[in-house]
Amino acid sequence: MDNKLTVELISVGTEILMGNIINTNAAFLARECVKLGLSCYYQDVVGDNEGRLTDTLNRAIDRADIVILSGGLGPTQDDLTKEVSAKCMGRKLYMDETSKIAIAEYFVKVGKSPTDNNWKQAMMPEGCIILPNNNGTAPGCIIEDNGKHVILLPGPPEELELMYRESVEPYLKSLISGTIYSKMVKICGVGESKAETMIKDMIESQTNPTIATYAKTGEVHIRVSAYGEDEAAAKKLTKPVVKELKERFGNSVYTTDENVTLEQAVVDLILANELTVGTIESCTGGLVAGRLINVPGVSEAFKSGLITYSNKSKRKLAGVKKSTLDKYGAVSRQTASEMAAGMAALAKCDVTIATTGIAGPDGGSPDKPVGLVYIACFVCGKVTVKEHHFNGSRAKIRNNAVTAALNLMRNCILEYYSEKTFGKK
Amino acid sequence: MDNKLTVELISVGTEILMGNIINTNAAFLARECVKLGLSCYYQDVVGDNEGRLTDTLNRAIDRADIVILSGGLGPTQDDLTKEVSAKCMGRKLYMDETSKIAIAEYFVKVGKSPTDNNWKQAMMPEGCIILPNNNGTAPGCIIEDNGKHVILLPGPPEELELMYRESVEPYLKSLISGTIYSKMVKICGVGESKAETMIKDMIESQTNPTIATYAKTGEVHIRVSAYGEDEAAAKKLTKPVVKELKERFGNSVYTTDENVTLEQAVVDLILANELTVGTIESCTGGLVAGRLINVPGVSEAFKSGLITYSNKSKRKLAGVKKSTLDKYGAVSRQTASEMAAGMAALAKCDVTIATTGIAGPDGGSPDKPVGLVYIACFVCGKVTVKEHHFNGSRAKIRNNAVTAALNLMRNCILEYYSEKTFGKK
Q1: Integer Rg of chain A from CA
Q2: Which of B384, B390, B388 is nearest to B409 (CA)?
């Protein structure tokens, strides 16, 4: 990267210091900084303590061009990020009437009443750029001085992320000469170490664009970022690398758009083909449907879902045969298959997904250990069943099963249409 | 707290600095330190860079009694936590034969061959306490000097956590005089700021035990930690404070056990009363069932669940009357109520929970804005419906609705049994 601006992240709050919340804000901001080509050498966590925060902030201002603080903008006496930052940057606080009105309006919107201490949140450092909070009460701000940029953001992730997207990202982009353009190649169904091995040569020879891999539950994301004089130049540099990644990973790539989730990719595929969908879940107990339904617009396609956790409900609701359950058991290829087909018949839909497995910690046996999950996908009459062996806690096994189920839906729909096209030729 | 030892956590690694992984190690170690009554004032993240790591470590040694470093114990040239720590503490590295044998044995166990650079992992600082790694190759160590304790742990969480449990926790306990005992009072249905106002006097006058509040989605958790000569003494000190909190928050307290989640509390209540349960979800689309089914042992009670996302499925599967849907709409008190009752009849269960609402971002109207959610709970013939107005993203609205649904189940079951008891008198 040609960009030499450095950034330091300071997370303020006792909750992080005491381990009660995991510092996802720092991870989010770090990823965003990487995307912009900013170099981050330090992250700090410090409590709501004037002396220690002053000390940490002064050091950060000294060693970085941009300091992003998160947290400590709340209404209580404890919250002093604004007070300390104003002091370090030689500013006073004043009551900002626009922010005061915005806070009052927020309370009207949520049908609650502000308390006296809420107005503290409208006290802003003199001469700062105010960042409106469209998801809460605390405005953020940017204090600039002497080539240094101190950015204050609220702690709740949904407020921080929206404010970053609306105000901070455009601001940071304005500081950078040239442009960074990045694509996220998202892969499902290939393990992390296998994926890294498959692109080792590309990672080792990277300069511009750079390539970075991120592991998610059952997924690997590869960020390709290029620096160029303008967006077109940067974009041009990413293209051959993204193309190469798509060739190496084939159908395992489900998107190259950062904002598209796996469930979004599945729903897009369903909507594009005017299919209808239903779910029938045992071990994942509603989580596959839960992820699909998180996609806005899914109501066009989603018919209904069943959670058939007991054998009786598998029989009664989904029409799984008693003989199948008796002979093969609830956790079996055959039961999964009958669940998927039964659901398709019941809900009269084109695509169904069925899960049945042993999430643990109990219920395993030598034949059917904890972590064994069968996933069946029905697409327009054809059922495909996959056997999986997952590791870890009950929650981890279930989450891995959900991802595998969404991926199977994707693959089965793609396969159905590729066979159809092939057959027509 | 009477214990004055302080600890600082340093996470070493570019992956955290770039946001590729979330810093769960720091959260784990921070929680464990709080449990032991150690005060943590700073956490740092720094890359595998000699100058910056030396700087960060020297500062930490200066301002804390105990410094715990994680990461950078790998076999590559990049990994230099041991080298830097030895230098800062005035030690040389030597080849530790015991660690070398342990590494060789580990490779035999996992059926792989060590590479030459793996032996670097057996180079240890002179005079240190070696911490065996029973889940990987890199041993950890403790370097003691002049009342300072520098503890080096491997980065992979499953290695770090096992090594902490086996070696570090007993070591830290040996440094501490007396014991810390803590209880977590978990509250649902009272907002964070209201909860804080309700116990402001207790927070302000706290010394031993200390009181700290933590906000979760729809929940507030209050940790009460006391320091005493032994566990019995510490426990005795927490008792009146926990009792006072229970009195102030009444039925909103769902547990005082750190490890019990809201869904666990609901399932415990269901199992204790030998009830059976079913779910019927529209806007939460499977997530209520998903949380309930995350509780091991729920299979005793959970009969089945429905996701009736479309109006048709509400009618066909759950028996909601067409006239109800036509007159009041899918998002209404009446529909929620019929869903809950319909599900109870269909699945023949004692308790059902129904959700219907507008999760957004589209689909809202002035009468029925985005965020409006009706939740109905059926308990043995009686249906209770609550109207909620949630804010934020689609995901946030849905998650808040799930927590509210679980809490309504808890309250309705408690109320049913209290009325029954009262009626008997």
Answers
A1: 26
A2: B384
Q: What is the mean pLDDT of each run of 10 residues along chain B (425 residues)?
A: 79 90 94 88 95 98 97 85 97 96 86 81 96 91 96 93 96 89 92 87 89 84 89 94 97 93 97 97 96 93 93 91 96 97 95 96 93 97 96 90 97 92 60
CA dihedral A369, A219, A160, B191 (to 10 degrees): -20
- How many whole angstroms separate alpha carbon B385 and alpha carbon B231? 45
**B34/A246: higher pLDDT:** A246
- ipTM, interface predicted TM-score of the complex: 0.81
Give the position of tokens 């990202």: A169
Residue B267 in tokens:
């399932």
DSSP string across B40-98: EEEEEEE-S-HHHHHHHHHHHHHH-SEEEEES--SSSTT--HHHHHHHHTT--EEE-HH
Say if the Cβ atoms of A307 and B309 lie within 8 Å. no
Angle CA A357–A360–A361, to nearest 5: 170
Taking CA–CA distances from B33, the nearest residue in chain A reads: A18
Q: Where are the alpha helices (DSSP H) in B199-286?
A: 200-204, 231-249, 262-272
Alpha-carbon distances of A365 from A22, A336, A358, A370, A385, rounded to whole Å: 35, 19, 10, 7, 21
Cβ neighbours for B304, distance < 8 A, ≥ 6 positions apart? A306, A307, A308, A309, A310, A313, A317, B278, B347
CA A420 centroid distance within chain: 34
Cβ-defined contact of A287 to B290 (cutoff 8 Å): yes
The alpha carbon dihedral of B14, B18, B23, B26 has a sign of positive
* Residue A346 exposure: Cα atoms within 13 Å on the Cβ side: 26
Q: Is the dihedral of CA B328, B333, B336, B341 positive or negative?
A: negative
The nearest CA of chain A is from the CA of B310 a distance in Å of 6
Cα–Cα nearest to A291, from A397, A387, A399: A399
Q: Do domains B6-175 and B179-255 have the same CATH topology?
A: no
Question: How would residue A157 be classed by pLDDT, with cut points 50, 70 and 90?
Answer: very high
Q: Considering only residues 291 to 330 of chain A, which have any Cβ-Cβ distance to chain B shorter than 8 Å?
A: 292-294, 296-299, 302-310, 312-313, 317
Give the best residue of A7, A8, A10, A17 to mutate against chain B (max B CB count within 10 A).
Answer: A17
Please state, as a whole number, how many other Cβ atoms lie within 10 Å of the Cβ of residue A323: 9
Dihedral angle, C-alpha B33, B73, A8, A41, nearest 10 °: 160
* A281-290 confidence digits (pLDDT tens): 999 999 999 9
- Whether chain B has a CB inside 8 Å of the CB on A422: the answer is no
Closest CA to A261 of A306, A298, A227, A232: A298
Q: How far apart are CA A254 and CA A257, in angstroms?
A: 9
Question: Could you give the percent of chain A with pLDDT greater than 90?
Answer: 72
Copy the structure tokens of residue B308.
């009736």
Model pTM greater than 0.90? Answer: no
Q: Which chain A residues are closer than 8 Å to B27 by Cβ?
A: 16, 19, 21-23
Report whether B375 contacts B354 (CB < 8 A).
yes
Domain at A6-175, CATH homologous superfamily:
MoaB/Mog-like domain (3.40.980.10)
Q: Which fold has domain A179-255?
A: Alpha-Beta Plaits (3.30.70)
CA–CA dist A341, A321 (Å, integer)? 12
Tokens of A399: 């989450």
Query: What are A164-176's pLDDT values in tens digits?
Result: 999 999 999 999 8
Cα within 13 Å of Cα(B123), Cβ side:
20
The class that CATH gives domain A262-424 is alpha beta
DSSP structural state of residue A355: E
How is chain A split into domains, by residue range? 6-175, 179-255, 262-424
